[in-house]
Amino acid sequence: MNLEVLNVDDDKMVLFIHEKMMIHSEFSNSPKSFENGYLTLTYISENKSEDKKFVIFLDVNMPNLDGWDFMDELEKRELDSYCYIFVVTSSIDSSDKDRAATYDAAIGFVEKPLSIDRLKELKKTKELLPFFD
Q1: Which of 127, 133, 129, 120 shows the shortest CA–CA distance to 105?
Q2: What is the rounded CA–CA span in Å between residue 46 and residue 70?
Q3: Full-prediction pTM beyond 0.85?
Q4: What span, in angstroms and rounded, lies between the C-alpha atoms of 126 and 22?
Q5: What's the CA gap between 28 and 75, in Å, rounded?
Q6: pLDDT at residue 18 is higher than 80
Q7: Using CA atoms, how far apart are residues 72 and 100, in angstroms rounded to an integer?
Q8: What is the DSSP letter of 52?
Q9: Which of 1, 44, 64, 101 has its CA 20 to 30 A from that of 70?
């Protein structure tokens, strides 16, 4: 089983920082970044396979297709079974955490910005353990 790491955020600087953190923490050697959810959905549709999972670090607050709409669309297109999603936000609103928990693909809630230590912790997430053992 392969694991592909995707970053989805409308802020180019956040994408750049998150990519560097992922490489330095050995979470991923080659994370891919997308500036909007539509591009990400297309990428997943075109690259999905039975032996691949996508770990998506998904910003909630984006124009056009926000994180919630992205997850709704993922479910509608039946792509959610290929994905593990970490909802990434600067929000500390507990209702966001509750809402994230309603999505099967959402396996965690992470506050911005990502750090090397936090990424090392996330490797121990139950769903991801088989990929990092």
Answers
A1: 127
A2: 16
A3: yes
A4: 19
A5: 25
A6: yes
A7: 11
A8: E
A9: 1
> Which CB contacts under 8 angstroms, 24+ apart, belong to 81-85?
81/105, 82/44, 82/48, 82/52, 82/53, 82/54, 83/44, 83/53, 83/54, 83/55, 83/56, 84/53, 84/54, 84/55, 84/56, 84/125, 84/127, 84/128, 85/55, 85/56, 85/58
Q: Work out the number of other CB atoms within 10 angstroms of the CB of residue 21.
A: 21
The vertex-39 CA angle with 6 and 43, nearest 5°, equals: 60
89-125 core/surface letters (b: 16 or more CB in 10 A; e: else): beeeeeebeebbeebebbbbbbebebeeeebeebeee
Neighbours of 76 (CB within 10 A): 10
Of 75, 81, 92, whose CA–CA distance to 37 is shortest?
Answer: 75
Residue 133 has pLDDT above 80, yes or no: no
| β pairing state of 106-111 and 2-8 | unpaired
Tell me, what amino acid is at 60? V
Amino acid, res. 61: N
Share of the chain above pLDDT 90, in %: 86
CB-based contact 7:13 (threshold 8 Å): no
Which residue is listed with tokens 């992470």? 110
